Amino acid sequence: MLPNLSPVRHEERNYSKSYITVTKKFWISHAFALIWTAFSIYLSVPWLDSLSSVVPWIAALLIIGGIAYIPGYMNAFLLSSLLLDRQPKYKNERPADRVTVLIAAYNEEKGIFNTLRYVAGQDYSSRLKVIVIDNDSTDSTTEEVLRAKEELRLDIQLLKEKRKGKFHALNKGLRHVRTPYLITLDADTLLHPSAIRYMVARLQSSPDDVCAVAGSMLVRNSRESIWTRIQEWEYFLGIASVKRLQGLYQGTLVAQGAFSLYKTSYIREIQGWPDAIGEDIVLTWRLLGKGWKVYFEPLAAAFTDTPVTLRQLIRQRSRWARGMIEGLKEIKPWKQPQIYTKYLTGINFVMPYLDVVYTFFWIPGLILALFGIFWIVGPMTLFVLPLTLVSYGLLYRYQKRYVFENLQLHIRKNKLGFLLYILFYQMIMSPVSVLGYMQELFQLKRVWK
User: Which residues are listed as membrane-spanning (predicted)?
Assistant: First the structure.
């Protein structure tokens, strides 16, 4: 999926005139998910009886619940929500409000110039201000930024921050922001030419209590290794589907630091980015905790480099899992002011349980199944798969027609990556997430990159 430097020719699609409120969508989706779960429980009674002959009944229920009941319920809720989702039209596709782009950079000499070149190529109506914060780099990051300032038609301000930590760098940049909106952008992320325009257009088309908009992240380096090939589908289908679900219910749980738009005054009101390994997660949850809303804009596309090796992937995803726990420790789901965010953060609250069950029961159960022992993994576990495939099929169609066609992008052929993503990826991600939970439990040293 390569960035296209052609401006967007956005096609308006004619949706049905009937309107279903967000609240109705929420409860309709819940009803479908509960019916599906009840049906699953009914069919699984023999499986529960069989497993409870090996372990206590309550243990059997917890194992099957983590493997089938809750994942099935979540997939059913996701599927029905995606079917009901309709992206609202923009009030103005050509906003011109002033925007500052914050880029925290640590040893980014290889990519920072290219990132700034794509910022300079935006079709935004107003001139952009860019603040690059060099977070004590030991390479030629500063020289590359100064070269961009000289060669590109871009208003660049370079700052230095000696204290290690992305939150330190972003907070220093925040003190120099003089515009109503600010964007955080990773130093290795390339923007589609219309990304900022669509991001600001979505925020300006939203209610006043919307404080941030998360952009749509896609994989740029998907041909570098088998791991990037798998992550291409994770970003294109998995992460995008979760973002759409959360955006529909006005509570996108992570306005990711890689590319998101914020109202500057709201960030200042919560005193900037927190001292956390998942600073963007905790920041977003603080915003939601104030009763504000966070949206998602699928047309605001950005292309990022994902981990190339398994070791790099493990470090990144364990850091994400740890950041989620940091957010849960600070703001409990039941303390969120809105029902949608209570529910969405509540899903995150049960994720450690699901990852633990998957790691310590499903994976060993799969090994037993290979020898004909179906105590844990058997035919019933495949019952979740149809909903997963249908939801991915719907999202693929949406991504292709609404996002990629409008952005004049092409989906790369990557059948092997898709197969590995569907069948094996979770076997790696759940143990890695458990590792992240343990790192936070024992307060091990934080590592930014």
Answer: 26-45, 57-84, 343-363, 369-395, 416-438
Instruction: Answer whether residue 184 shows pLDDT above 70.
Output: yes
Predicted TM-score (pTM) above 0.85: yes
CA-to-CA distance for 145 and 132, rounded, in angstroms? 8
At 132, the pLDDT band (50, 70, 90 cuts) reads very high
Is the CATH code 3.30.160.390 the one for domain 99-339? no
Nearest to residue 262, comparing CAs of 344, 180, 169, 345?
180
Measured CA distances, 224 to 15, 133, 185, 408 (Å)? 39, 28, 22, 23
Q: Is 151 left (phi over 0), alpha (psi -120 to 50) or beta?
A: alpha
Instruction: Give the span between the Cα atoms of 69 and 297, in whole angstroms.
Output: 31
For the chain, domain boundaries: 17-86, 99-339
Element (H, E) at 441: helix 425-441
pLDDT at residue 153, rounded to an integer = 87
pLDDT at residue 299 above 50?
Answer: yes
- Average the pLDDT over 140-154 and give the result: 96
Q: What pLDDT, on the 0 to 100 scale, is given for residue 448?
A: 58
Q: Tell me how far apart the alpha carbons of residues 58 and 8 are, in angstroms, rounded to a whole number.
A: 55
CB 36 within 8 A of CB 72: yes
Q: Which spans in 106-253 are helix H?
A: 112-120, 141-151, 166-174, 195-204, 226-233, 240-248
Can you state the angle between helices 339-357 and 22-43, rounded to 10 degrees?
A: 30
What strands, in cross-sheet order, belong to the sheet with 129-134?
155-160, 129-134, 99-105, 181-185, 259-263, 210-219, 293-304, 189-191
Percent of the chain with pLDDT over 70: 94
Sign, CA torsion 175/181/185/190? negative
DSSP one-letter code for 238: I
